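Quick one, tokens below. Sequence please?
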């Protein structure tokens, strides 16, 4: 059975191109972006709330990560890692990113499991429930 042309790449069902600007961001960029964001959150956590043995509380790091995600998504449509790797989070239906979307997306991302469940368009459950898609710029 042959896959129809309209479903042959991630984002085709959403009307997004296969490659270039506005195409769905691929796995390598996503992993790179979350690594950058987590490294920044870890550094901020270490600087602000370092324990006597030099370690940090993982819950504080997660809180810093979540705060940075929500703030940067609200103002720049992407976390620091997204911006560095030229990606943006946009609503599937177009328009502006409503304030509730970054909050829902980030809370689900912090649970980890929703981000690991993907659909055919390479959108994690956190993006599906927030009605967003991560695209390249």
């Amino acid at each position: 059975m042959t896959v129809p042309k309209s479903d042959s790449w991630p984002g085709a069902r959403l009307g997004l191109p296969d490659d270039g600007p506005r195409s769905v961001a691929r796995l390598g960029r996503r992993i790179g972006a979350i690594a950058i964001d987590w490294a920044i959150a870890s550094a901020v956590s270490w600087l602000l709330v370092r324990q006597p043995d030099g370690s940090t509380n993982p819950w504080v790091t997660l809180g810093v990560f979540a705060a940075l995600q929500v703030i940067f998504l609200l103002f720049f449509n992407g976390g620091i890692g997204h911006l560095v790797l030229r990606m943006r989070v946009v609503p599937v239906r177009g328009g502006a990113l409503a304030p509730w979307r970054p909050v829902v997306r980030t809370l689900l991302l912090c649970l980890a499991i929703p981000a690991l469940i993907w659909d055919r368009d390479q959108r994690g459950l956190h993006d599906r429930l927030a009605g967003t898609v991560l695209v390249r710029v």
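Residues 27-49 form the longest helix (23 residues). The chain has one domain: 23-136.
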